[in-house]
Amino acid sequence: MRKISILMALLFAQAAKSQNYIVLHASKGKDTINKNIYGHFSEHLGHCIYGGLYVGDKNKKIPNKDGVRIDVINALKKLKVPVLRWPGGCFADTYHWKDGVGSKAQRPSMLNVWWGNVKEDNSFGTNEFLNMCEEIGAEAYLSGNVGSGTPHELTDWVKYTTHPNGSSPMTDYRQANGRSTPWKVGFWGLGNEAWGCGGNMTAEWYANVYKQYATFMTDWSNSDKLYRIASGASDDDYHWTEVLMRDIPLKMFDALGLHHYSVIDWAKKGSATAFTEKEYFTTMQRSLLMEELVTRHSAVMDKYDPKKTKALAVDEWGGWYEVEPGTNGAFLFQQNTMRDAMIAGCNLNIFNNHCDRVKMANLAQIINVLQAVILTDEEKMILTPTYHVMEMYNVHQDATMLPMNVISNDYVLGNEKLQAVWASASKNKGGLTHISLVNIDANKTQDVVIDVDGAAYKNIKGRILTSKKLQDYNSFEKPENIVPLAFNGAQIIGNKLMVKLPPFSVVVLALN
Ligand code: AHR
After folding, report:
1. Percent helix, strand, coil in the chain (nearest 5)?
2. Which among 259, 260, 320, 371 is the best mutation to test ligand 1's pocket, defined by most ligand atoms within 8 Å of the CB?
3. What is the pLDDT of residues 202-229, one digit of tens each?
4. Which tens digits make up the pLDDT trace of 463-487?
5. Which atom of ligand 1 is nearest to the CA of 92?
6. Which residue has a Cα nearest atom 5 of ligand 1?
7. Is 148 exposed, middle or buried (CB count within 10 Å of its CB: 0-12, 13-18, 19+)?
8. Are 39 and 317 in contact (CB under 8 A)?
9. Contact 382/59 with Cβ under 8 angstroms?
């Protein structure tokens, strides 16, 4: 008895010294963390589709199911990918879906003008994508061509994919192409980056174009119940969000997008692996801006939609560096280090904490492009540190978010500082609570005291992702250099949790 109280006194003394102090409001959960916050994005870009997801059904070297890599299918199932956006990105506004259906021998080729002018043979099209989504258990998010397409083309796509058999020539076409029943398409994007590659439009112009497309892709009362996502703002363009909220009737959309990449400098993005601590710090500054972006875009949305019936969909986010030396500059292939694990952990915590408004997020991009969760090289496949963070965090999917107050130490570099500890928590339907914590400090361990208000936990288990160096990554030679390990640095003392977070680490705790 006396032993325990000495231990407790010591721990409390330590806690008092520590400035990392979190209050977990364990009985105040209200909002659900939409599983689609853990969404992904796939574009006809570099080796995301060809070589990454799809190797073709004639491929005898790489095991595949209807052309989709089986190793990738298994990894994505384990990740619990809830939603996958396709076919772009900038590519989407050049894509004509009818070129990608029917007999492969008859499908026309095109040049992929956005991404290296390479030949796109359209062998991976609508049927292949939607069948693949069914296989991995993900909802489909189709990004429609608004920039260079027509309302007619988009309307036909809706009919081809989702309308009942016998209702139009498009559904006959679907059946003739070997699909006997409609697919489910969970989400429709109306253009991509309409302020840039999607047409260089003003917000006012796009709002009108949006309404035209949104009107014809279904009917006035949206009896098809389509979930329509308007092409959203870039970074801190709050004017874009304001105009869309003001000019598009609420009944004509379900979500607004938002794109934000963690880039040091668009003219000098820096290496994905050979970076200094200063470059790491700057990447994290850019990345953590997400907190302010979702707060302020949400505040604009609140003015027009105080009941939060419309979502913010962060449908492109992640780190962006120079391509790997010797690879095609237009293919955006980059390695993935513990820096990316930090980006993933912090951003997912931010999205979880804003789940009253943020209902979807799509990491850019799923394979071989930007902050990928999987990298492939012919028949080899590796999982990146970002994959492991998303897998550790998938326990939050569809759980009830538990609010927290976080007081954190600073991560200081020179004259600048950032919040060191980032956290979120949820309680799942089985009654298990999960807390995800990130220490972004490159050098210092952070001792965190979590005061639990409204619950009494008896059991604690944890997993950690960290490594010796921030610059460490998984390679085809050392695919398991960084993997999640059991975490023993947390304990329950009365109504407090004491957690020791090593430098640049991600920890997920499970409690009941
Ligand atoms: O993800 C790469 C590109 O970044 C996308 O095609 C575009 O939407 C964004 O600018």
Report:
1. 30, 30, 40
2. 259
3. 999 999 999 999 999 998 899 999 999 9
4. 999 999 999 999 999 999 999 999 9
5. 6
6. 89
7. middle
8. no
9. no
